[in-house]
Amino acid sequence: MTLQQITSRVHVETAHLGSNNSIIVGDEQLILVDSPHRPTDAMQWNKTVSAFGETRFIVNTDHHPDHTIGNFWMGGDVVAHRGTRERLLTDAPTDEYLRDLFARIDPDAVALVDDYSVRVPNVVFSEELDLHVPGASLELTFRPGHTANSLLAWFPQDAVIFTGDIVCEAGLPSFQDSRLANWFDAIDAVAEHDFEYLVPGHGDVADRAVVDHYRALGREVVSQVASAIAAGHTRDQACDEIRFEDNIHVDTDEYVGYPDSLVEMFQRRSIARIYDDLVEDPSLANR
Ligand SMILES: [Zn+2]
């Protein structure tokens, strides 16, 4: 564990496999951003945060398992965009998927699957929602980008923006639930905030430079796919040919990452998504 204090009220854990997990400390209560991916991390995280106060809210920046599985072991109301609740209700991870996943990333948790149930957000919003606890307020805005139900969480008091996977510091996440136009619009929306610290969905806490760097990484993949289309390659060919660096789902010193087959599937779906969006609107290659 490497809990980092960013400002007087914001603490961030960047060493969990899966999403970054943040604490905003009010006078007595807490607002948390994203849940740990591994159950054993989630149980430990719930203990860690309780030392700072009582969890009042936990925000899910999107529905992906690496941001939501840990909800089950955390306190407070779970808050998200309404589409996140919807996706978790309709595409809930199956027990079989969870057993496979935990056997890989968290073997001690395999036995917990029998008692596990997906804890879906019970407080949802469409466009904007402000969360208040004494001493701290967090502004949530619907911002489709990484997913159709992503959000930005802005903590103006300390000029901290929590971007979820709209901006990552550790490289590119999957594009499988993205639309390319939204993907770029969401990055622009992040840049419009007057933030001092950017807490990404994955990777280290960053400053403004990360936004341009991240946009450039995205452009690079998009331009590779655009070139494949221009060369007359089919979608399947493009999926065979193009790969981007995935630093998000891979091994760390402490954990074994996702199996190669899953990472491969994320990559193919991502390239397919970009290919389809570019065929529909070739001007996206110039974003
Ligand atoms: Zn993520």
What is the CATH superfamily? Ribonuclease Z/Hydroxyacylglutathione hydrolase-like
Number of helices: 8
Mean pLDDT reading: 94
What would the CATH topology be? Metallo-beta-lactamase, Chain A
Task: Please tell me about this protein's structure.
With 287 residues, the protein is α/β, with parallel strands linked by helices. It has one domain (3-208): 4-Layer Sandwich (Metallo-beta-lactamase, Chain A). It contains 8 helices and 12 strands. It has helices at 39-50, 65-68, 82-90, 95-105, 180-191, 209-230, 235-241, 260-280; strands at 3-5, 10-13, 21-25, 29-33, 54-59, 77-81, 123-125, 128-133, 136-142, 151-155, 160-164, 197-200. The strands form 2 sheets. A 7-stranded mixed beta sheet has the order 1-2-3-4-5-6-7. A 5-stranded mixed beta sheet has the order 8-9-10-11-12, with no helix packed on it. α6 (209-230) crosses α8 and α7 (235-241) packs across α8 (260-280). It is globular, with a radius of gyration of 18 Å. The mean pLDDT is 94. Zinc ion is lined by residues 19, 64, 66-67, 165, 173, 201-202.
In short:
The protein is α/β, with parallel strands linked by helices.
Label this structure with key terms:
alpha/beta, Metallo-beta-lactamase, Chain A, five-stranded mixed beta sheet, 20% strand, globular, binds zinc ion
